[in-house]
Every structure is written in C-alpha cells, then in structure tokens.
Amino acid sequence: MYSQPALFRTTLRAIAVLVLLGWWPLSALANPISQLSSPQSFIAHPSGEGYFIANANGEPGTADNNGFISKLDRDGNLLDRHFIQGGRGDTILHSPHGMGIAGETLYVADITVIRGFHVQSGAPTVTVPLHPFRVEALTDLIADGSGQLYVLDTAGNAVYRIDPQHDFEVSLYLQHEDMGSPSGLAVHPRSGRLWIASLDNGNVMEIAEDRTMTEVISNSFFTGKFRNLSGLDFDRFGSLYLSDMTAGKIWRVQPDQSMQVIAEFLISPSSVKIDRRKHMILVPYLYADGAEINGLEQPINTGTQRKRKRTLSDYGLGWLEGDEKP
User: Is the Cβ–Cβ distance between 227 and 244 less than 8 Å?
Assistant: First the structure.
C-alpha cells in the first residue's frame, strides 16, 4: 500500500507525462481528495450542491460506530471531513457504504440497516432496520428519483426496496442466485430500469418492471473482460461506467455496446458514480484512503461520423499509467 505522499507524487508524474504527450487537456485535470479512511462510496447531490463520501474508517463491515461521511462543496473541495461522525452525540454509524439522497435526507447503507441524516445539518433522522430479512451486508444504495430507495444485499443475492412515503416499508424486490453477489446498482436514465453489476461473475444485468432479469453484458470464460465488478452508473447520455476493483480498471460501455478501458492500474476502485448534472465521474479508493472527481468528455456527433475519443482525456485518475484501446 502506498503512503499518501507517494500516491500524490505518482499522480503528478502521471499527469505531467500525459500533458506532455498531448493526451490530457489541462482542463480535465482531476481533483484528488486525500485524508479519507477506507472510502466505500462517493455520490453527488442531485441538485448540484456538493458531494458526499462514505468512509468505513477501519475494516469494512465492522460494527464499531466509527464510520463517517465527508462533505465536499460544489467544486469538489473538502468542506467537512467528519460531516457525519459515528459516536458523536447520538449519531450511530458503523461502516457506511452506498448512499442516496431523496428530498432533504441522505440515506446510508450501514451493514444491516439504512440510516437517514439531514442533508444540510447531518443530524440523524431515521433508522430502517433490515434485520427481519436476515441481510448480511448491505452495499450499494440508490434513490430512484420518484422517492423509492433500493439497496443491495451482496451476500444474499438480493435487492430490497424501501418506501419512505409509507413509513419506510421494506420489501424484498428481487432475489436470485444468478445475481452473482451484486455489488453495483443504478437506474438507467432513460428507461428507469434497475441495473446491477456482479462481484463474483462480472455480469451486468437489467431488471424489468415485471422483475424479470436479463443479462446485458456477459462475462463468460471465453468473452470475459471483468474480474470483480464493484460498481456501476450511467451518464445522462446513456453510457455505462463500471468499476473493477480487483483488476483496478474503469470501463465505459457506450449505448452501441462498444467498450473502452478509460482508466487502469488503479488502487482498489471501490465504486463508481456519475454526477449527471455536471458530467463528472466520482471514484473512491478503498485501500488508498483517497478519492477523485473529474470531468468527462461529452459525446460529439458530426453526422454519420462520430469523433474518436482520446480515452486518456476522459478520466483524470492519479494512478492512471496506460490505456487499453477498444
């Protein structure tokens, strides 16, 4: 594991090389966030007001009431490293993972419960236990835009739905062994359907309105590209982004199913989320105690010819040392 100074020296060297080669526009430089502690997720406020990073602050999954949420301003600068801190006052927060914002509440998956905090003050507002369902470890969590929350139980191969408008009623939305330990969850910006990424088999699946599941991207022995997918999200143009924690890569899958590795040689990218409003990509590094935020290029359509992108300029990760062509 690298020390923080070593990580940022690597960042500067990588950026300098890419700028000199003409592969990296100066406007696309990343904003690195340091002094985190086992960050597991990184999300944007849907209104564009800022960002939040969930820190396990120790071994993920440990119930030690020592987790915290960091708050960033709209430009990605750290405002309050311990905006929400487990063990401070009446706040309980063990190992925060996935997060979602609905209304004025920041919802956080915390091992076997969902915790709600006021998005402005950080004060605890609600606790939703999932113990009756015998969940083992809640991971990714999203708000679907209509007031519903969805959360993954990776070990249980299940998706649960929480309805804040009806006394936080919890229901099992879908459970199937073919999910392969789902670790990433997102809503498609156009269809509104849920998509999940598998940690075990690297498949990507779509869940229809009737709760049937379709394999969208197969990761078989002969066609496999992924090792252990840890997260996924969409930009507003319909491109899909996948984080592979074991391989240390970020993939982009365009609507025409073409795939690109837009970053590799990364240190434990534990998830990936997109700020659709600002077209920014957000990645936390679980074992590097850091995170980064950077702008993405917007699609350019020049009639029948589409301009080929320089993949290295898409994503300003500090530990990027190479690029794989599609």
Answer: yes
pLDDT at 225: 81
Confidence of residue 1 (pLDDT cuts 50, 70, 90): very low
Mean pLDDT of the chain: 84
Give the Cα separation of 86 and 69 in Å (integer).
Answer: 9
Q: In 3D, which of 206, 251, 205 has the Cα closest to residue 227?
A: 251
Instruction: State how far the alpha carbon of 192 is from the alpha carbons of 146, 158, 211, 213, in Å.
Output: 10, 19, 13, 14
- From the CB of residue 29, how many other CB atoms can be counted at a distance below 10 Å? 16
DSSP state of 307: P
171 φ, ψ (degrees, to nearest 5):
-140, 150
Which pLDDT score is estimated for 8? 43
CB atoms closer than 10 angstroms to residue 287: 13
Nearest CA among 252, 233, 255 for reference residue 313:
252
Three-state SS string across 79-134, please?
EEEEEEECCCCCCCCCCEEEEEEECCEEEEEEECEEEEEECCCCCEEEEEECHHHC
pLDDT score for 222: 52
Q: What is the pTM of this model?
A: 0.84
CATH of domain 32-296+304-320: 2.120.10.30
pLDDT tens per residue across span 190-249: 899 999 999 888 889 999 999 999 998 887 655 668 888 999 999 999 999 999 999 999
Q: How far apart are CA 140 and CA 142, in angstroms?
A: 7
pLDDT, residue 122, reads: 97
What is the per-residue burial (b if ≥16 Cβ within 10 Å, else e) of 297-318?
beeeeeeeeeeebebbbbbbbb
- Token readout for 111 is 């091992």
Q: Please give the span between the terminal C-alpha atoms of the chain, in angstroms, as a whole number.
A: 30
Look-up: residue for tokens 């993405």? 296
